[in-house]
Specification:
Blueprint: H1 4-14, H2 18-27, E1 37-42, E2 45-51, E3 56-61, H3 70-83, E4 87-92, H4 93-98, H5 100-112
Parallel strand pairs: 3-4
Antiparallel strand pairs: 1-2, 2-3
């Protein structure tokens, strides 16, 4: 028997919104040089797109993400992802439809940034500050 989030992910792959479908066409198959998955389960949640190499969850937010309790639920979800070492990038669905190339460029650029910036060498020894 499948975990509930895996069943949900499979169903969501069949029911992607138009902006998600169009964005997936640009991200799939390492066309960007970075590998992405779509409708990927992370814990009890399913993110729209995921880049494992960058531990990056990408959410395409439609109009309903600004209504009712949805902003609070999205913030709670983002906090769970971030507390578990994932970065979250939210992209407006309208932006995907208006300027796909800019959205893809932004996503790939964000995925290319390391999670932690390397330090500029070791810390100074005592008395060398």
């Amino acid at each position: 028997m499948l975990r509930p989030e895996v069943s949900l992910a499979r169903r969501l792959r069949r029911e992607m919104s138009l902006p998600e479908v169009l964005l997936w066409e640009h991200l799939r198959g390492k066309k960007t040089g970075v590998k992405f998955r779509h409708q990927h389960p992370i814990g009890p949640y399913v993110c729209d797109f995921y880049c494992a190499a960058a531990r990056l969850a990408i959410e395409v937010d439609g109009e309903f993400h600004g209504r009712g309790d949805r902003p609070r639920r999205d913030a709670d979800r983002d906090r769970v992802f971030e507390q578990n070492g994932y970065r979250v990038l939210r992209v407006a669905a309208g932006e995907v439809l208006r300027d796909m190339e800019a959205v893809v460029t932004m996503i790939v650029s964000f995925a290319a940034r390391p999670l932690h910036q390397p330090a500029a060498g070791p810390p100074p020894r005592a008395g060398e500050e």
